[in-house]
Amino acid sequence: MFLGIDLGGTTCSFGLLDENGALHHEIEIETRQHDGPDVMLPRLADAARKVLASTKNEAKAVGIGVPGPVKHQEGICVYAPNLSGWKDLPVGPILSEKIGLPTHVLNDANAAALGEARFGAGRGANDVLVITLGTGIGSGLILDGNLRLGASERGAEVGHMTVAIDDKRGSAGNVGTLESVCGRDAIVWRALRALTWGRESILHQMCPDLSAMTPRHLAEAANQGDDVAQKVWMETASYLAVGIVNVVFTVDVARVVIAGGVAQVGEPLFAPLRHAVAARTSRLKFDVSQIVPAQFENSAGLIGAAQWAREQTENLAS
């Protein structure tokens, strides 16, 4: 077995992965993101040892997915914007010493992609793009069956791809990105803009406090035929399709897995998305039925982190 750790800004999950992709002895602790690494890492190690004790120390290695860019060979988290003090932090070496097992570090979006590719909705396909839609947009790319990280381990960052050159939203000088037009806040903003223009919509009744609107409200409204909500999803899908098509034409992936909270809205997003991708890939004859929702709602990152430990262990042994 291999221990996976999925470190988030609010909670941190632990679990043991068997060879069939099943998780065992899962626990969750509070992250306490403002504690700093000197406090947080010993807490993570303590929780890890509790899980490992349930296996009579049969686990071979540990994998941890962290919310930021990493240097996996050195086990370093370059920075984690939501975790205080996590800059150039040797997470792998520190946890290896405290836990007593080799600890392998991976970006959390890549961990989620690996989990879906090996055991979830990407299983059976050698070339898979996994996109996680939430407040931000993360992604991971599997080519020829292997997770591709790129020269600086920041490859396949589809969320930072420019898809709307006339849009001024974005950060760090990179505007019109997929994240800036398809992230959760952008989707809700699109609806609020239409409502402030006086458009009639059942959203007024469904969500009297417009500041509390979520993509789920928009999905429910779209399913009831609401024109504003349907157009929001069509516009969102058109931008997302551009990002997907760019990857399809560049590396010829066979399957696209859409994960994250926004993806859970279902067909209000997937129906116009498949239509928009089909319109742009007619020459390539990309099978849009291969644009599918993720199988794992919350555990893909945990599974992927443990699987990363397994694959790194096997690579070192070969």
UniProtKB/TrEMBL annotation:
**Hey, which family's this protein in?**
Belongs to the ROK (NagC/XylR) family.
Task: Supply the name of the protein.
Answer: Glucokinase
Species of origin: Abditibacterium utsteinense
Q: Does the keyword Transferase apply?
A: yes
Entries under InterPro entries matching the protein: ATPase_NBD, ROK, ROK_cs
A single GO molecular function term of this UniProt record: kinase activity
**Keyword Plastid in record:** no
Q: SUPFAM superfamilies, alphabetically?
A: Actin-like ATPase domain
Q: What keyword terms does UniProt attach to this protein? A: Kinase, Transferase
What Gene3D superfamilies does this protein's entry cite?
A: 3.30.420.40
* One Pfam assignment: ROK
